[in-house]
Design a protein that fits this description.
The structure holds 2 protein chains of 2 kinds. Chain A has 2 domains: 162 residues, no CATH class; 65 residues. Chain A has 12 helices and 8 strands. Chain A is of the alpha+beta class. Chain A is 56% helix and 16% strand. Chain B is mainly α. Chain B has one domain. Classes of the chains: A alpha+beta, B mainly alpha. The interface between A and B is medium-sized, with 19 and 24 residues.
Chain lengths: 274, 115
């Protein structure tokens, strides 16, 4: 009974390891390469970058990001546990601050802890602002921070202006740039340019199948079927994905009757009005 | 073995709970390693819960490995026995005995009953 109780407690404790890493050995491996502190810094920088992208027209003062009503950054990476704080600030100063003092009332202790948490958020945000500036992702003018947008579009043909899409790229963007000191946002967007053009170009090149591609994409989204011409026969298939191969675009499918998987050129698709 | 004298600096010893955690992690890793790399996050959580219930239902495997590891740490003088539930239970029993009122002998009882 005692063992079961302890096991339950331990399972609760180790569950986040398996949710994040899949295996404890994987966690140990990762920690050998990336220090925990580095990971936190990465997370906070990405969270701040996302926050600024989604409000890209705004110029932020540091204090606004820390405590502003509408511009305050809220992300779990800015949160801290009392344990983290104790580690960072050392337990003695924490005791001196009264947070761990047993003489304090519950309310007072909570207030002290909240105050410490806010201090910690401020520290993290200040740190993240420095990192983002160092990586030229943001700039500081007259004590106000904003995205370094001219660098984001420099040398770019296919510019992404959709903020939610840009925000979803922020982790990728930050990871790419921070690896090499000389890389800037324009280097990242030159890479996305290549990807976008690789996706767009084949549809221009194979314009005659554009209608078919659109039809297949629609059916994939709706979970519908399409007919392909195979010799004299018409075969009903569930399209799964349109992919780009060496010879251009093709699509993968599953036959409706036999569930056999296959690939076919877009040219073979029969449009509904044909 | 995960911990050694150097890490523990020869002062702080390994507690019973730390031993249990180490055994549990290795047991879970042993089972999860077969499936984890190919699973999505949702599937991973499901698998974790499935294995958790399996271990909770039949903790024999866990207990054998735990006892083995305790022996190993004891041999290296790394085990903090004061945290072991068996030792705690024994100590409590001794304390309870030593604190209980002195029992009278059977002869005394006879005399007392007589008056």
């Amino acid at each position: 009974m005692q063992t079961e109780k302890l096991l339950k407690q331990l399972f609760k404790k180790i569950a986040p390891i398996y949710q994040t890493y899949g295996l404890n050995s994987q966690k140990s491996l990762c920690e050998r390469f990336f220090k925990a502190e580095e990971k936190i810094t990465h997370k906070t920088s990405v969270a701040l970058l996302k926050h600024m992208i989604l409000r890209h027209k705004v110029r932020f003062a540091r204090e606004d990001l820390i405590s502003g009503n509408t511009t305050r950054v809220d992300d779990e990476s800015f949160e801290m546990s009392i344990k983290d704080y104790a580690k960072k600030m050392n337990k003695v100063s924490l005791k001196n601050n009264g947070i761990l003092s047993k003489n304090l009332s519950k309310e007072d202790r909570k207030r002290e802890y909240d105050k410490a948490k806010e201090q910690f958020r401020g520290m993290r945000i200040t740190e993240a602002l420095k990192i983002l500036r160092c990586n030229r992702l943001i700039k500081k003018v007259d004590n106000q921070y904003s995205l370094n947008e001219e660098l984001w579009s420099k040398g770019v043909v296919y510019r992404i202006r959709h903020s939610p899409t840009l925000a979803s790229l922020s982790n990728l963007m930050f990871s790419y740039i921070k690896n090499e000191a000389y890389l800037g946002p324009n280097d990242f967007f030159e890479e996305t340019d290549k990807i976008i053009s690789a996706v767009i170009k084949p549809s221009i090149k194979h314009n005659q199948v554009f209608q078919r591609e659109f039809y297949i994409a629609q059916q994939i989204e709706n979970g519908g079927t399409v007919y392909i011409q195979e010799g004299k026969f018409k075969i009903e298939v569930f399209p799964h994905a349109v992919e780009i191969g060496e010879a251009g675009k093709y699509f993968r499918y599953e036959e409706a009757k036999s569930t056999k998987m296959g690939e076919a050129s877009l040219n073979l698709v029969i449009l509904p009005n044909q | 073995m995960k911990k050694n004298l150097e890490e523990k600096n020869g002062v702080e010893k390994i507690t019973y709970e730390e031993v249990c955690e180490e055994v549990l992690l290795s047991l879970m890793d042993e089972k999860m390693s077969k499936v984890a790399p190919s699973l999505s996050k949702e599937e991973l959580i499901k698998e974790f819960n499935k294995l958790k219930n399996m271990i909770l239902k039949s903790s024999g495997d866990f207990e054998v490995k735990r006892d083995q590891l305790i022996q190993e740490y004891k041999r290296q003088d790394l085990y903090d026995e004061s945290t072991d539930p068996k030792v705690i239970a024994q100590r409590n029993l001794i304390d309870a005995k030593s604190n209980s009122p002195v029992q009278s002998s059977s002869n005394d009882k006879k005399i007392n009953f007589g008056f």
